[in-house]
Amino acid sequence: MDTLLVIAAILVLAAVGFAFGRRRAVVQSAGVPARLHSLPGYHGHFVALWAAVPALVLLAIWVPLEPVLAMNAALDYFQAHVSEPGNMESIRQSKLALLLGIPQDATTLRLDELGADQYALMQTEIRNTAVGTATTGHSAFIQEVADYYARYRTTSYLIMFAAAVGVAGAGAGFAWSRVAPEMRARNRVEAAVKWFMILCSTVAILTTVGIVLSLLFEALRFFSRIPVTEFLFGLHWSPQTAIREDQVGSTGAFGAVPLFAGTMLISFIAMCVAVPIGLLSAIYMAEYAHSKVRAVVKPLLEILAGIPTVVYGFFAALTVAPFFRDLGDAVGLDVSSESALAAGVVMGIMIIPFVSSLSDDVITAVPQSMREGSYGLGATKSETVRRVILPAALPGIVGGVLLAVSRAIGETMIVVMAAGLGANLTANPLEAVTTVTVQIVTLLVGDQEFDSSKTLAAFALGLVLFVMTLLLNIVALHVVRKYREQYE
Amino acid sequence: MSDEQHTESAHDHAQDHARPDTTAGKPTVDGPVKVASRHVDVFYGEKQAIKDVSLDIAPNEVTAFIGPSGCGKSTFLRALNRMNDIIDICRVTGDIRLDGDDIYDRRVDVVQLRARVGMVFQKPNPFPKSIYENVAYGPRIHGLVAHKDELDEIVHTSLDRAGLLNEVKDRLETPGTGLSGGQQQRLCIARAIAVSPEVILMDEPCSALDPIATAKIEELIDELRENYTIVIVTHSMQQAARVSQRTAFFHLGHLVEMGDTETIFTNPEHRLTQGYITGRFG
Amino acid sequence: MTPPSGSPATATEKMRASLKRRYAAERRFQAYGIVAILLALGMLVTLFATIISTGTSAFVQHTVRLDVTLFPQDIDPDGTRDPAVLRRANYQTTINDALYSLFPEATSRQDRRAVRDLVSSGANFVVRDMVLADPSLVGQRISVRVPLASEFDQVLKGNVDPAVDLGVIREASTSVPWSLPPDERLISETQADYLQQLVRQGEIEGSFNRWFFTNGDSRQPELAGIWGAAVGSFFTLVVTLALSFPIGVAAAVYLEEFAPKNRWTDIIEVNINNLAAVPSIVFGLLGLAVFLQFFGLPRSAPVVGGLVLTLMTLPTIIIASRAALKSVPPSIREAALGVGASKLQTITHHVLPLAMPGMLTGTIIGMAQALGETAPLLMIGMVAFVVDIPGSPLDSATVLPVQIFLWSDSPERGFTERTSAAIMCLLGFLIFMNAAAVLLRKRFERRW
Q1: In sequence order, which residues have a C-beta less than 8 Å from that of residue A205 and are 6 or more positions away?
Q2: Residues of chain C with C-beta less than 8 angstroms from the C-beta of A187
Q3: Does B86 sit within 8 Å of C342, measured CB to CB?
Q4: By the 8 A CB rule, do B75 and B55 touch?
Q5: Chain B hits for A33, Cβ within 8 Å
Q6: Looking at the domain assignment, is residue B158 inside a domain?
C-alpha cells in the first residue's frame, strides 16, 4: 500500500535521526559520558521521536481525509462538465443511468438532487472506474471523471509524501540542534513514553464509548422507523418481509418479546443444568475431595471452559438435539429437532466450570473459624455446609450465578447452531425458540444494505443485549465485591 | 514498610502528650553542613508523620536517627532523597538543602538527586541478576563509564569497599540473590557506592541480619565514613552508640533532641530522650 | 432452664437415634457431589468421544489409481511448456479417458456419467499439479492416485449405506450390503458395482488425507481442507497479538505503576472489568459499525478480525499483566530508585522482565480465547466462502472456528466428518497454547 511506503520513509528518517542524535551527544560529551545529563541513547530517541511523531500525526489526519477531498473534487468536476455535449449521452448509454433512474431524454444531472443511495452509488461508480473494477459498463464521461479523481489522488499522495518527509526531516533537524550535554533528553523521552501509555490505557474507555455510540446511533435510527414500544412490547417478530423497500407491508414486524422470552427460556434451562452441577461439584471439591482428586478433577472441569463455543454448538446439533428428539419419540412426545432444551442443556454444560470455579472461590473464602465452630458443636460435614457455609457464601454464589446468567444471555454460537430461527412465543422447552443473539447473527450475516430496518434492528437488539448484560455484570460484581470485603 | 505506623502515631492527642521544645530553626551542627533541613513537615494524606523538623547533617560523619517505632525517623530519612515521592499521598513541606541547594525545587531532577544521595534498605533487596550486574547497574544508567574496563574497575572497587570482594570475586556472575543475608546487604551497599554518592542513607540496614553479619556491616559503616556522609536509622541504641558521631532522637514525628552521640547517650537534655535511652519506653 | 428433651440420658438417646438419619443425609450429600462431578466429566467425555469418533475418519481419504496418458496435443499443443499454458490446460478429458478404460462395459451416456462421478471433480487439479511440478511428464503415461468422490469415500469408510468393508470385499465375493430402499440411497447400484470392481482389482486404497491439510474450502467435501482457514486464523492472531500485547502491557504498566488513584483511573478500571464481561457478539457489532462502516476497512479481512479480537482480548491481557506487575515486590523498585534509576528505567530494567512470564501467560490465554472466537467474526463478514489461501491480512479469509461453523451447516456426511476433524485440530492448537501457558507459569514462577 502507498501509505505503507510513507510510513516506511518516516521510520527510516527516524532511524537516521536516532543515529545522528546519539552521535552528536557522544561527540559533545567529549569522552566523558558523565558530562551528559542523559545517556546518548536518550538523545537518539529524542531526535527519532521528533522525526516520527509529528509526521505520523500528519499522516493519520491525511489518510481518512484525502479520499473525501478527492471525491468532492471529482464530484465538482462532474457537476461542472456534465452539461457539456456528449457527456450526458455517454452516461445514458451505461447501466449507471438505469441504476440512477435517469430519464432517457435528460440533458443534465444535478448531483444535489440525487437521493442518498444514488449519491453513494455515484461515488462508488467513480471509485470503481478509477481502479478499473466497475461493473456497470463504460461511460466515457464517467471514465473522464474517474481519471480526474485518480490524478487528484496521485498528486495529493505525492504532496503528502513530500510533506511527511519534510515534517519528519524538520522535526529531526530541530531536535538534533537541541542536543546538548545539559538537555534533559531522558525526561522528555520518558514523558513521551508515559503519554503513549496513557493513550493505551484509554483504549478500554474508547472501546466502551465506541460500543455505546455505535449501538445507540444505529438503534436510534431504527427507533425512528419502528416505535420503541412496538419493539419492546410487540409480540410478533418477522423481519424477513422487509428485504425490499418497495414490497407491500415492507415494514415487517419487529416485536422483540418472543426473542426475549426465547433467550430467557434457554438461559433458564442452562442455569437449571449449570447451577446444581456446578455448585455441588464445587462444594464437593472444596469440602470433601482429597487434594489429589482435586488436582486432577479441577483442571479437567476447566477444560470445559476452554472449549470454543462453536464446538459446543456442533455437539448440540450433532448429538444432543437428535438424542432428545429420539428420547421424545420413544416416550411419545413431539420434540423439535431445534428444541430449546438441547441448546439450553449444552449451554449449561459450557457454564458449569464458570459456576463451579466462582462458587469454589466463594466457599473457600468462608473463614475456617466458622467451620470449626460448627464442627465443635458436633455437626456433620454436610450439616456444616448446608447450615453454615452456604448461608455465609450465599451472596457470593448469587453474584457468581448472575455473572453466569449474563454469559448465557450473551452466548451466541450454541444457539445459532442448535436453536431455531422462527420467533415462537412459548414456554415449552421442547419447541424451537429463537434468541436475541441468533437474530442478530441472522440479520447481519449475508449481504444487505447498511441502513435497512432489518440491519438496524440487529443494532437495537445488540443495544438491549449490551444493557442487559451490563446491568447484570454491575450488580453481580457489586455483590461479589461486597461479599469479599466482608471476609477480608 | 513501617509507613503505616508513622501515620498511626500522628494522632492529634499525641501532640499535647509531649510537645518538646525543639531546636527549630537553629543549626544543630557547628561546622560544615552537608544536608540542612528546616521546618520539614511530612504528611500521609491527612495525617502528619513529621512535624516541623529542622536538623543538619555534617559531612563525613555518621548521623544516627533513633526513636521508638513509628516516630517518623524512617519517613524523615526517605524525605532526604525524595523516596517519599513514590507514595502518591505523601506530601513534604519545608526546606531540605543538599550543599545549599533545595532538593525539593521543581527544577531538581529526582534521578540525579538519588544518584547523589544513595540508599540502603531495611531488607536486603538485590536485583535478581548476577552480582556483577547488581553493582554495574547504577554506573550504567548514569552513564558514568565509557568502557567495559572502567566498569569492571568500578564494580571491583565498590565490592572491595563494601568488604565483599574477597568473598565473591570468583563468582561475580552468580545471582546476587544466592548470597547470605549479610552478604546481600553488603552487596546493596556496594551497589549504592558504585554511583559515587555523596550521602548514603541507611534505613535499619542490620535489622534483618544476624549479630555476626551486623558486626561486619557496622565495621563497614565506620570505614565508609572517610569518603561518604552517612545517615543511619536504627532501632538499636547500642548500634547508634557504636557507629555514629551524632545522634538525633525522634518521638511522635518531632525531633526531640540532636547532638554528639556521646552527649546524647550520657547527658541528654530532654527527659524523653533520657527515658528512651535508659529503656523506660521504646 | 430445662431442655425440652428432659434428662441428659434421654437427650443422648435421642441423639443416637437421629445419628443414623444424619449419617445417611451426610452420605447422600456426598453422593450428590460425586454425581455432579461425574455428570460434568461424563459430558466432557461424551463430547470428546463424539468429536473423535466422527472426526478421525476424515484423516483418511480413499484414492483410486489411474493410468493417465498426457497427450501433448490435449495439454500443450504448441509444445512451449509454458506454466501458464499448463495451468489452463484441460486435464479432465485425460482423466475421463483413463476412467473409461477401466470400465469398457460402460458405454451408455448414463453409465459413463456414473463412471465419471466415481472420482472427485478435483482430480484434474492433482494431475495438473503433477505436470506443473514436472513439465517433462507431458507425453508420458503416468500412474496417479486421485481422490474418490466423497460419497464413495464415505461408503468405504462405513459411514453411510451401503457400508462396504474394503477387506471383506477384497477377500470374498460378497455383494454390496444395502439396507436402505433404492430411492434413499446415496449412490446408485451401478456405481456400487463399479466401486466393488475397483476394490477387487486393488486399485482403491485408503491413505493419509493430505488434501485436508493443504486445501482451502470447497463445495466438494473430498477437496475441502482447513489450510485456508488455518492461515486466516494465523493472520488474524498475528494482528491481534501485534496490537493487543503492546497496548495491553503499556496500559497495565500505566495503571499499575504510574496512574494516580483518582476518579479517572477508577473509571478506566471499572471499564476494563466490565468490558471483560461484554458478550463477544457486541464486539462484532462494534467492528461492523466502526471498522467496516465508518473507517471503510475491507470486509472479511483478517486485519479487521484482528482489530475486533484485540478489543476483546485487551481486558484479559491488561488484567493478567496488572496481576503480574503486582506480584513483583516493591523492594525491587526501591532498590532501583535508590541508586537513582528513573521510574521508567526501574520498570523497563527490573519490573517488566520479572513480570514478563506472567504477562506472557495472560497473553497466551487471551490468544487462545481469540483463536476459538466465532460470533464477532461472523458480524464482520469472515463467513465468506473462500477457496483461495489468503496471502496477506488484507485478503478475504475465514478462520478455523468459522470454517467449523460453515461446514457444520452442510448436510453431506463428508462435511460432518470434516467438521469434527477441524474441531480436533482447533482443540489441538488450544491445548498446545494452554499447555504452553501452564509450562511458562511453572517454569518462571518465582516465590519472593
Answers
A1: C267, C268, C271
A2: 342
A3: no
A4: no
A5: 143-146
A6: no
B161 in a structural domain? no
B131 inside domain:
no
Chain B segment 27-46 residues within 8 A of C by beta carbon are none
Query: What tens digit of pLDDT does each residue of B53-81 get?
Result: 999 999 999 999 998 888 888 899 999 98
Please, which chains are in contact with B (at least 3 CB pairs closer than 8 A)?
A: A, C
Number of structural domains in chain B:
1
Query: Are A34 and B144 inside 8 Å of each other by CB?
Result: yes
Pairing of strands B229-233, B199-203: parallel
Give the CA distances from residue A48 to residues A24, A30, A42, B131, in Å, rounded to whole numbers and listed in that order.
13, 22, 10, 34
- One-letter amino acid at C381 equals G
Its CATH class, for the domain covering C228-444, is mainly alpha
Greatest Cα-to-Cα distance within chain B, rounded to the nearest angstrom: 60
As annotated, the residues of chain C forming the CATH 1.10.3720.10 domain(s) are 228-444
Interface subset of B 97-156, CB within 8 angstroms of A: 109, 111-112, 141-146
What is the least distance, in Å, from the CA of C247 to any CA of chain A? 5
Mean pLDDT by 10 residues, chain B (282 residues): 38 40 57 90 90 91 90 90 83 90 86 87 88 90 84 92 89 90 91 90 89 90 91 90 92 90 88 82 56
Q: In A179-250, which ranges are continuous DSSP H helix?
A: 185-201, 203-225, 228-233
In C, minimum Cα distance to A204 occurs at: C272
Q: Look at residue B142 and tell me if it is in a domain.
A: no
Whole-number average pLDDT of chain C? 86
Q: Residues of chain A whose pLDDT is less than 50?
A: 1, 241-243, 248-249
ipTM: 0.89
B177 touches chain C (CB under 8 A): no
Q: Which residues of C touch A313 (CB under 8 A)?
A: 405, 408
In CATH terms, the fold of domain A253-486 is MetI-like fold (1.10.3720)
B249 phi and psi, to 5 degrees? -110, 125
C353: nearest CA in chain B? Answer: B128
- Kindly compute the dihedral angle of the four CA atoms of residues C313, C315, C319, C324, in this order, to the nearest 10 degrees: 40
Tallying the residues shown for chain A, one arrives at 488
Contact across the interface for B142 and A34, Cβ inside 8 Å: yes
B244-280 per-position pLDDT tens digit: 999 999 988 899 989 899 988 888 888 888 888 887 6
Residues 6+ apart with CB under 8 A from C31: none
Residues 71-100 on A with a CB inside 8 Å of C are: none
d(CA C307, CA B159): 52
Domain CATH code at residue B73: 3.40.50.300
State which residues form the domain around B208. 3-125+197-277
Contact C408 A317 (CB under 8 A): yes
| CATH 1.10.3720.10 residue window(s) in chain A | 253-486
CB contact under 8 A, B137 and C331: no
